[in-house]
Design brief:
The chain is α/β, with parallel strands linked by helices. Strands 1-2-11-8-3-6-4-5 form an eight-stranded mixed sheet, sandwiched between helices. Strands 7-12 form a two-stranded parallel sheet. A two-stranded antiparallel ribbon has the order 9-10.
Length: about 425
């Protein structure tokens, strides 16, 4: 049950927006523009460079350390083989302990190169080891650090003008199943669209302020490719992130609390927008037409799906259209081979308000007490398709009903 204080707060917020159509409830109103202070912007810019830009500086740093290690190894090897000899022509590397070469300067240089090679090699090995098996990624570490309550997330939510609406339409979906509580009941939350970087999904599950009075906590489903982003991977681990493989998601759907969040369009969806050929700047896209995996899992585990459209998620970065084979490779290897940029050409997102709109909950078409495992092939696929069609219709509905509220009355959502 939702506390009465929250209900009264929501009523007062709704009254602030009389222009909303009937059945649309304001859960979190947009903060005033000036709520984002200079300190907030500095935090956002710094963490963007560190987190979003991590593939650039992290792997650049790995390459730098490797090259420096190889450089000093070669220099030391060169001295030991060719230059560092004593008066009898004996190599420094072959000298017995206690003997000193005539040219002490060469010996000191050799020792310095060996020391530097050891330091760079140790740093390289330590960083790679920590990036693979670092104990800091344990979910308990994030809980101990109170990561969800960090001041950093307030800065981000102020920066994006975090806003949440709920569009019940002409009927309340919870009247179909009054036992369903959006903040605690088992459910699958589907966030559309993915965007260049999944800010929409991240802000819905990481900051406590993001989910506290909206949809409640859940575990995010993330692409395997996020492991290539060292800091992103750490944050995801602290949130109890679930790998996007079918087996991992299925396991998460069967484990308490059975609440997950997913961006069904995934990495491929980021390519389905302008400037891709065939798309207009006023087109928004949801990659759903041939994607039924989410609905199969929802039916198998009897999980309702809550559709959420995130207005503005596609505008936080701009993408450079690359040759088509790059997109093919991205889909093949399930990794984002995408050239994007933000403010000043850096991985700093443009300041774009994010408006989340929750639609009516899509319940699995299963009768009370019915065993899903007994459904035959055609019957199962028919019900999956029914959920798919209902979800697509609901996403289009909440987009069309709320685009004017966001200032996107001229835009169109395409299901691709």
């Amino acid at each position: 049950m939702i506390p009465s204080t929250n209900l009264s707060r929501r009523r007062s917020r709704t009254q602030q927006y009389p222009f909303l159509a009937k059945g649309i409830e304001t859960i979190i109103p947009p903060p005033p523009y000036e709520a984002c202070t200079l300190a907030d912007k500095i935090l956002v810019y710094a963490t963007s460079l560190i987190i979003v830009g991590s593939p650039f500086w992290f792997y650049g740093g790995i390459i730098y350390l490797y090259r420096k290690w190889r450089q000093y190894c070669k220099l030391a090897d060169h001295l030991s083989k060719n230059d560092a000899r004593d008066s009898n022509g004996e190599r420094l590397s072959e000298m017995k302990e206690g003997l000193q070469p005539l040219d002490t300067g060469i010996a000191e240089q050799y020792a310095r190169y060996r020391m530097l090679a050891k330091r760079f090699g140790t740093a390289l090995a330590a960083i790679i080891l920590l990036s693979i098996v670092g104990p800091h990624r344990n979910e308990k570490v994030g809980s101990m650090l109170g990561v969800r309550t960090w001041r950093l997330w307030d800065a981000w939510l102020n920066y994006v003008g975090f806003t949440v609406l709920r569009d019940h339409g002409n009927k309340n979906s919870e009247t179909i199943n009054p036992e369903f509580d959006i903040q605690s009941s088992p459910a699958m939350f589907a966030f559309i669209p993915h965007g260049i970087f999944p800010f929409g999904l991240a802000f819905s599950c990481l900051p406590e302020r993001g989910y506290q009075n909206t949809w409640g906590p859940f575990r995010p489903v993330v692409a395997t490719a996020t492991k290539l982003f060292p800091f992103v991977r750490t944050l995801i681990s602290w949130m109890g992130g679930v790998d996007a493989s079918r087996s991992a998601v299925s396991e998460a759907c069967s484990m308490h609390p059975r609440r997950i969040g997913i961006s069904p369009g995934g990495i491929a969806e980021m390519f389905e927008t302008f400037p891709k050929t065939g798309f207009h700047p006023n087109d928004e896209a949801a990659l759903l037409k041939d994607r039924t995996g989410m609905f199969k899992l929802a039916l198998q585990h009897k999980l309702p799906i809550v559709p959420v459209y995130v207005f503005g998620a596609t505008k936080m970065f701009r993408r450079v259209q690359l040759p088509h084979f790059i997109e093919t490779l991205s889909r093949m290897f399930k990794i984002s081979l995408c050239l994007f940029f933000g403010k000043l050409g850096l991985p700093i997102p443009f300041r774009q308000r994010l408006m989340y709109v929750m639609g009516r909950t899509i319940f699995p078409p299963i009768a009370t007490g019915e065993d899903v495992g007994m459904l035959e092939g055609d019957d199962f696929h028919r019900r999956v398709q029914d959920m798919h069609d209902a979800f697509c219709s609901e996403i289009v509905r909440i987009f069309d009903r709320n685009k004017e509220n966001y200032g996107w009355g001229h835009k169109t959502l395409r299901i691709v």
